[in-house]
UniProtKB/TrEMBL annotation:
Family membership noted in the UniProt record: Belongs to the glycosyltransferase 2 family.
Broad class of the protein's primary localization: membrane
Name used for this protein in its record: Glycosyltransferase
Keyword entries, A-Z: Glycosyltransferase, Membrane, Transferase, Transmembrane, Transmembrane helix
A Gene Ontology cellular-component term: membrane
PANTHER family reported for this sequence: DOLICHOL-PHOSPHATE MANNOSYLTRANSFERASE SUBUNIT 1
Record localization: Membrane
Organism encoding this protein: Lichenicoccus roseus
Residue intervals passing through the bilayer: 255-276, 317-343, 349-373
Glycosyltransferase 2-like domain span: 18-188
Signal peptide range: none
InterPro entries the UniProt entry points to: DPM1-like, Glyco_trans_2-like, GtrA_DPMS_TM, Nucleotide-diphossugar_trans
Amino acid sequence: MSTTLDRPAMVATAPILSIVVPCYKERANVRPLVAALEAALDPTLRGAWEVIFVDDDSPDGTTTEIRTLAAQDTRVRGLRRVGRRGLSSAVIEGVMASSAEFVAVMDGDLQHDETRLAPMLQAVRSGSCDIAVGSRHVAGGDNDGLSNAWRHRLSDGGIRMAQAMLPVRLGDPMSGYFACRRDYFDEVTPRLSAKGFKILLDLILSARTPPRVVEIPCHFKQRAAGESKLDALVLVQFIAMLLDKAVGGLLPTRFIAFAVVGATGVAVNILVLDLARYGGLSFSKAQLTGTLVAILVNFALDNSLTYRDRRLTGARFWLGLLFFIVVCSAGALANVGIARALFIAHRGWGPASAAGAVIGVVWNYAVSSTLVWRRK
């Protein structure tokens, strides 16, 4: 019997460049992005590229669209992640699935200028840098694609915070558009926090030695379809990642995020307390009201952010809220008890209060992780 295939053999060109695209609910942008990449890269790479979409189980059929296109174009690949969320971890999985010598990361919303990929790749291939960044904040670049003044302020604030920690000079550390050698990414990967949305910043802060960075001017375009994923919760994740790097990874990123959310709850408690007192409530009733509101806010934020990968829904949401109230109440008692004991031991108001607060946060985090948001 003949072993010859009925159809002619297809010779695939080994990719020089893998473009990793983390995405969530971007079905409408899949085909336009691949077409844009083809127009931008084929003149120089002649098909020696691939795009790896990493989809966090989008409910809009993004994975189906990727698979349909991949059946027609061997340069298109897709990874569907179930039960896992997050841009940074999606990028890491996409890069680890690549065998190309060079990798690039870009968003799936068509806002990154695909024509900048060729000069970014050239900068890395020449050996003049370790990372080439598509930058909105150098001469020739712009940030016009940010949809409103709030997003501009959020981006500018994040840039200032990031620049204060960076070991290299970088005008756009918040960029999600960059290229590097895959082996460079491989070397840094074990030290990445894999949390949040700013994988470039994580990559630079996790390197053993400051990387050589080149910024390529980039036009940040308006979103054509889909919806932005940027919200206030992203800022909390960003702060948690910076704190994680500041303490050298000694504390879990999830614990840092939990503490940041807890600080938000303290601010809410104080605000509600003042409003309730002005409304004529007694101090005790005002304090109770502020505490309850703070617990509700903390639970909502932790459920959406800190434990996003274990998010509670339906009946489990309400049962989790009940457990969370009990946990926080016990944490408050531990806080007061430790603080009182230290105060009696003449440790002073400040140290006693701080120690009580630390014990309370650690208790709330430990019990919440194992009881409220336990792994399924």
